[in-house]
Design brief:
- The structure holds two protein chains of two kinds.
- Chain A is mainly beta.
- Helix content of chain A is about 10%, strand content about 40%.
- Chain A folds into two domains: about 90 residues, Immunoglobulin-like (Sandwich); about 60 residues.
- Chain A is rod-shaped.
- Chain A starts with a helix and ends in a 12-residue tail after the last strand.
- Chain B is mostly beta strands.
- Chain B has one domain: Immunoglobulin-like (Sandwich).
- Helices cover about 10% and strands about 40% of the residues of chain B.
- Classes of the chains: A mainly beta, B mainly beta.
- Chains A and B meet through strand 2, strand 6 and strand 7 of A and strand 12 of B.
- Strand 2 of chain A pairs antiparallel with strand 12 of chain B, so a sheet runs across the interface.
């Protein structure tokens, strides 16, 4: 009964208040057209400021919703987005701020491999993401599982991705031992 | 002896700090509080002006807080008593005493002396309109009225009707509604 009430409460909360972005917000390096918004009051105007992170405001100044293109330098940018709402009497409200973390993923270079090579760990930076692709088992690359070929492996975290290329070559084909 | 002192005390009080204004009342077209753009009509009535030491009433000065704007007279007071003249709306007038009057109504005595005022004892009724100005701060919206006798203007100076306090009609501040913005969300 307690569990049911908890589930109902969570559902009701989500339905009532909708999406809420956690502060700081995480964006991928060099992301474009990222949309930010506040609840709209039709008689209000909204003044947005984007600072740090290589961010540039692209569209929507004056409205309750904007798009932003971000730079490629990873890091935390406090108060990167600010909005000040003014009502019909042109009286400003309290500034609302959002910190932004620009996430720039990278992965280690591995290979080339031969089919019989041992399993090699895949290292992503920053750590904590997930590797996917042919031959990937538990964030490690198994040449024997992948087999001969060229592969693109993907490292993912917080909705951002980066890729590395891995090659597994044919091993030498040795003939049978002959006896003169 | 005691009776004599009491009589002297009463006489002294009347001479020094007597008040000639009584039975004041007002009516506001809406009770407040007020926000920018609100328009308020004010009806003010002075029931009686007692002419102590032959001091006559000469002006009604309207004192407004900085939050008000667009003061407009709607109904002028009437009554000159035995004096000829008329009540005129004026934004500023400097009397012979140096009193800087305005805005409000003042009696222009066209008979004996322009600084003598009206010999009427009332009642006087008048109406004006004010508007709450555009602002984002809780500006003062006080409204008071000073009834001025010709003692204060230098027209007739013998000590009475010089200390009538301002009559308070409204005390308050502009009601400001500032927007409350939600958190910033990211799709």
């Amino acid at each position: 009964m307690k569990k049911l009430l908890t589930v109902l409460l969570v559902c009701f909360g989500l339905a009532t208040y909708g999406q809420t972005t956690i502060n700081p917000d995480t964006v991928c390096a060099n992301a474009t057209g990222e949309q930010y918004f506040v609840t709209n009051t039709p008689t209000s105007t909204y003044n947005w400021t984007v600072t740090g992170g290589g961010g540039t405001l692209q569209t929507g100044q004056g409205s309750n919703s904007i798009t932003v293109d971000w730079g490629g330098v990873s890091g935390l940018y406090p108060n990167a987005i600010e909005v000040i709402e003014s009502n019909a009497a042109n009286c400003p409200g309290t500034p609302v701020l959002l910190d932004v973390f620009v996430l720039d993923l990278s992965g280690n270079i591995i290979g080339p491999f031969c089919p019989g090579d041992p399993t090699t760990p895949l290292v992503g930076n920053p750590a904590g993401g997930t590797w996917t692709g042919t031959g990937v088992v538990a964030n490690a690359f198994q040449p024997s599982t992948a087999g001969v070929g060229n592969y693109v492996l993907t490292y993912s975290m917080a909705g951002c991705n980066t890729t590395i290329n891995v090659v597994v070559n044919n091993g030498p084909v040795t003939g049978p031992i002959q006896h003169f | 002896m005691k009776k004599t002192l009491t009589i002297l005390f009463i006489f002294f009080s009347l001479t020094v700090s007597s008040q000639c204004v009584s039975n004041q009342s007002f009516l506001l077209s809406s009770p407040g509080p007020y926000s920018p753009g609100d328009v308020v009509a004010v009806d003010y009535t002075l029931g009686t002006f007692t002419q102590l030491n032959i001091n006559w009433i000469i002006a009604f000065q309207i004192n407004l807080g900085v939050g008000w704007t667009n003061l407009i007279p709607l109904i002028n007071p009437v009554g000159g008593g035995t004096q000829t003249g008329n009540w005129v709306w004026d934004l500023q007038n400097t009397y012979p005493s140096g009193l800087n009057f305005g805005p409000g109504w003042r009696f222009n005595n066209t008979g004996f002396n322009p600084d003598w005022g009206s010999s009427s004892t009332g009642p006087f009724t008048m109406r004006f309109r004010v508007t709450v100005g555009p602002t984002c701060t809780p500006d003062d919206l006080s409204i008071t009225i000073n009834v001025i006798g010709d003692c204060l203007t230098g027209g007739w100076n013998n000590g009475a009707c010089c200390s009538d306090p301002a009559y308070n009609i409204y005390n308050g501040n502009v009601q400001i509604v500032t927007p409350i913005t939600s958190n910033i969300n990211h799709y």
